Amino acid sequence: QVQLVESGGGLVQAGGSLRLSCAASGSIFSINAMGWYRQPPGAQREFVAVITRGGFTNYADSVKGRFTISRNTANNTLYLQMNSLKPEDTAVYYCKATINSLNSWGQGTQVTVSS
């Protein structure tokens, strides 16, 4: 089991930047991949970015070139650097850790981008 705690959300103007963090604890050495998802108001949760144990990354088309996923294994933290933010990036952002086929989720952090 993995416990995840997100932080770093907030209110930002369009064109601005934010960095989200996700602190992981528990069975971290068994994690196969970690990712970021988001749920816009009135919409379903959607994929944003993923990084595997081997360092492979993948992004949703809507955030490619603007968002960067990274990790710090020394402090067991996942990051999402978000640049050139748009109002349509407004959502609750969730961190996910996958161990084999089992997923653990954080509680989410709100990101609001004003126009």
Can you describe what's shown?
The protein is an all-beta fold and 115 residues long. The protein has strands spanning 2-7, 10-13, 18-26, 33-39, 46-52, 57-59, 67-72, 77-82, 91-99, 102-105, 109-114. Strands 2, 4, 5, 6, 9, 10 and 11 form a 7-stranded mixed β-sheet that branches. A 4-stranded antiparallel β-sheet has the order 1-3-8-7, with no helix packed on it. Strand 4 (33-39) and strand 5 form a beta hairpin.
Q: Quick gist of this model?
A:
It contains no helices and eleven strands.
Gap from first CA to last CA: 40 Å
So how many helices? 0
Which outline best applies?
A: globular
Strand content: over 45%
Which radius of gyration do the C-alpha atoms yield?
13 Å
Whole-number mean pLDDT = 96
- Which stretches are poorly predicted, pLDDT < 50 over at least 5 residues? none
* SSE class: mainly beta
Order of helices and strands: EEEEEEEEEEE
Number of strands: 11
- The percent range for helix content is under 10%
Biggest sheet statistics: 7 strands, mixed
